[in-house]
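ingest -> validate -> predict -> emit
validate: passed (alphabet ok, no gaps, 126 aa)
predict: started
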Amino acid sequence: QVPLVESGGGLVQPGGSLRLSCAASGFTLDYYAIAWFRQAPGKEREGVASINSGDGSTYYADLAKGRFTISTDKSKNTVYLQMNGLNPEDTAVYYCASYAGYIGTYLPPQSNFGHWGQGTQVTVSS
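emit:
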């Protein structure tokens, strides 16, 4: 049983939208924070957004503010990343990861995240 599974990636034109899903299994989201990261070819993996499932509080990296929205559906044990206004610079593999704690105003080091999904490819191109 894979703890985190991402889906929803694909090819989209500039200005388009995608909604990524991160389905958790084997544990309940209530006591975890879930973050989205992305890694573009030749670049380091970077944080995108996170949500504390307990109270719904969120964090957004500057690259995501105003364009991306993270949310959770506890009934489905799933976290979503709605991405609008996509541009070619958003092309990357997107990963979700779990953090056994509370995320405040910045993301903890990536080494502190316990489970990682396999990633889903997002390609923004005309």
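The chain has a mean pLDDT of 95.
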